[in-house]
Amino acid sequence: MENNDFQHIRKRLGKTQKEMAVLLGTSLKAVSSYEQGWRGIPTHVERQMLFLLSQKMRQQQPRKNCWETKRCPERKKKNCPAWEFDAGHLCWFINGTFCESTTKTNWQEKISVCRQCQVMKGLS
After folding, report:
1. Are 92 and 113 contacting, i.e. CB atoms less than 8 angstroms apart?
2. 3: which of 36, 71, 105, 115 lies 20 to 30 Å off by Cα?
3. Exposure b/e, 24-35, CB count within 10 A at least 16 = b
4. Cα torsion angle, 5, 8, 14, 20, sign
């Protein structure tokens, strides 16, 4: 996540930097540093930001489950953690999903695939 993505999401959530710091459990200075590009955005902060945005958007417009959107075969679907935990709108958040028929080894690898997916389009 880039600093301008962070700021864009914060504004879509309708939060001030101070309110965002409270939600993220970090300092106001950290939030300001993320937005200015002085500090890299940690993985846990990026995930939390995307989760909050996803939940906010879900309140406004319900989203289809990933297995419906991607038309996953029954066998693949039943082995996927997103289906197991009934979190088809949060498939990008859950490690171990079978997108592109393989699991990813780390967050950066996973999120780069997810950002291209129609399920996650519009979140960032």
Report:
1. no
2. 105
3. bebeeebbebbb
4. positive
Mean pLDDT of all residues in the chain? 87
Phi, psi dihedrals of residue 80, rounded to the nearest 5°: -95, 135
Residues 120 and 113: their CA atoms lie apart, in Å, by: 10
Residue ranges of domains in the chain: 3-60, 66-114
Question: Please, which residues have CB within 8 angstroms of residue 107's CB and are 6 or more apart in sequence?
Answer: 43, 46, 47, 95
CB atoms within 10 A of CB 114: 21
Q: 3-60 architecture in CATH?
A: Orthogonal Bundle (1.10)
DSSP 100: G
| Whether the predicted model's global pTM rises above the 0.90 cut | no
